[in-house]
Design brief:
By secondary structure, the chain is α+β, with helices and mostly antiparallel strands. The chain is built from 3 helices and 4 strands; from the N terminus they run H-E-E-H-E-E-H. The protein has a domain of about 60 residues. A 4-stranded mixed β-sheet has the order 1-3-4-2. Strand 3 and strand 4 form a beta hairpin.
């Protein structure tokens, strides 16, 4: 891992930044999985600073068919907005 920021994030050092569960107070989004999860995870790590959650799963769409989605949750709603507006790996269809 290379440092791209001037400050070290304590959550990264302690291994507490990316969670393996989604707390109820997190703001979440489901993105259809035609994307590269590794690139999104790296983008979040380099550009955002609060705790987050990523899970690959299947959900029912409006046509009652299962689709693969990437569920991403953030502790800060502002960081979810930054992901939606700034991440080049998320494209509207």
């Amino acid at each position: 891992m290379t440092l791209t920021k001037e400050k070290i994030n304590p959550l990264n050092v302690l291994g507490q930044r990316r969670l393996n569960f989604c707390p109820v107070h997190f703001s979440t989004i489901n993105i259809e999985l035609t994307l590269n999860q590794v690139n999104i995870d790296q983008w979040i790590t380099e550009r955002l600073s609060d705790r987050y959650y990523i899970l690959r799963r299947q959900v029912l769409n409006s046509s009652n068919q299962y689709v693969n989605v990437l569920t991403i949750g953030f502790e800060s709603p502002a960081e979810l907005t930054m992901l939606i507006l700034g991440c080049p790996y998320i494209k509207e269809e």
